[in-house]
Amino acid sequence: MLHNIQQLREIAKTCLSGKPLEPKLARWLGSSLDKYLSQHVRSIDDAMGLHTARGGVPWWMEEAMRKRDQALRKLARG
Predict the structure, then answer these.
(1) Residue 32 in contact with residue 48, Cβ under 8 Å?
(2) I want to staple 41 with a disulfide (CB 3.0 to 4.6 A). Which of 9, 46, 54, 76 is the partner?
(3) Is residue 5 exposed (0-12), middle (13-18) or buried (19+ Cβ within 10 Å)?
(4) Which DSSP letter does residue 20 get?
Protein backbone atom coordinates (compact mmCIF):
# COMPACT_ATOMS: atom_id res chain seq x y z
CA MET A 1 0.00 0.00 0.00
CA LEU A 2 2.79 2.46 0.82
CA HIS A 3 4.28 1.82 -2.60
CA ASN A 4 1.04 3.12 -4.11
CA ILE A 5 1.27 6.25 -1.94
CA GLN A 6 4.81 6.81 -3.22
CA GLN A 7 3.52 6.47 -6.78
CA LEU A 8 0.74 9.00 -6.12
CA ARG A 9 3.26 11.45 -4.67
CA GLU A 10 5.48 11.04 -7.71
CA ILE A 11 2.50 11.58 -10.02
CA ALA A 12 1.49 14.72 -8.12
CA LYS A 13 5.04 16.10 -8.18
CA THR A 14 5.41 15.39 -11.88
CA CYS A 15 2.03 16.88 -12.80
CA LEU A 16 2.68 20.00 -10.74
CA SER A 17 6.00 20.49 -12.50
CA GLY A 18 4.29 20.30 -15.90
CA LYS A 19 6.39 17.34 -16.99
CA PRO A 20 4.91 14.23 -18.65
CA LEU A 21 4.37 11.12 -16.55
CA GLU A 22 6.58 8.10 -16.99
CA PRO A 23 4.66 5.45 -18.96
CA LYS A 24 4.58 3.05 -16.00
CA LEU A 25 3.01 5.67 -13.71
CA ALA A 26 0.60 6.81 -16.42
CA ARG A 27 -0.59 3.21 -16.98
CA TRP A 28 -1.04 2.64 -13.24
CA LEU A 29 -2.97 5.89 -12.79
CA GLY A 30 -5.10 5.27 -15.88
CA SER A 31 -5.89 1.72 -14.82
CA SER A 32 -6.79 2.83 -11.29
CA LEU A 33 -9.07 5.60 -12.54
CA ASP A 34 -10.68 3.24 -15.06
CA LYS A 35 -11.49 0.74 -12.28
CA TYR A 36 -13.12 3.51 -10.29
CA LEU A 37 -15.00 5.19 -13.14
CA SER A 38 -16.32 1.88 -14.50
CA GLN A 39 -17.53 1.05 -10.97
CA HIS A 40 -15.47 -2.13 -10.67
CA VAL A 41 -14.52 -1.01 -7.16
CA ARG A 42 -16.45 0.78 -4.43
CA SER A 43 -14.07 3.64 -3.78
CA ILE A 44 -11.13 5.53 -5.24
CA ASP A 45 -9.05 4.16 -2.35
CA ASP A 46 -9.84 0.61 -3.44
CA ALA A 47 -9.06 1.48 -7.06
CA MET A 48 -5.62 2.76 -6.06
CA GLY A 49 -4.88 -0.06 -3.64
CA LEU A 50 -5.19 2.11 -0.55
CA HIS A 51 -7.71 -0.03 1.29
CA THR A 52 -6.88 -1.31 4.75
CA ALA A 53 -7.45 -4.77 6.09
CA ARG A 54 -10.29 -5.20 8.54
CA GLY A 55 -9.15 -3.71 11.82
CA GLY A 56 -6.15 -2.08 10.13
CA VAL A 57 -5.11 1.52 10.24
CA PRO A 58 -5.48 4.02 7.37
CA TRP A 59 -2.50 4.45 5.03
CA TRP A 60 -1.61 7.88 6.39
CA MET A 61 -1.50 6.56 9.94
CA GLU A 62 0.59 3.55 8.93
CA GLU A 63 3.02 5.87 7.17
CA ALA A 64 3.27 8.12 10.23
CA MET A 65 3.84 5.11 12.50
CA ARG A 66 6.63 3.84 10.23
CA LYS A 67 8.34 7.25 10.29
CA ARG A 68 8.00 7.41 14.06
CA ASP A 69 9.39 3.90 14.49
CA GLN A 70 12.31 4.68 12.19
CA ALA A 71 13.14 7.80 14.22
CA LEU A 72 12.95 5.82 17.46
CA ARG A 73 15.27 3.12 16.11
CA LYS A 74 17.73 5.84 15.04
CA LEU A 75 17.61 7.38 18.52
CA ALA A 76 18.11 3.98 20.14
CA ARG A 77 21.25 3.37 18.06
CA GLY A 78 22.60 6.65 19.43
Answers:
(1) yes
(2) 46
(3) middle
(4) P
Contact 7, 49 (CB under 8 A): no
pLDDT one-digit tens code per residue, 1-60? 789 999 999 999 999 999 999 999 999 999 999 999 999 999 999 999 887 778 888 888
Residue 59 CB-half CA count within 13 A: 13
- The CA radius of gyration of the chain, in Å to the nearest whole number, is 16
29 and 20 Cβ atoms separated by less than 8 Å? no
Whole-number Å distance between alpha carbons of 45 and 28: 14
Where b means 16+ CB within 10 Å and e means fewer, 29-42 reads: beebeebbeeeebe
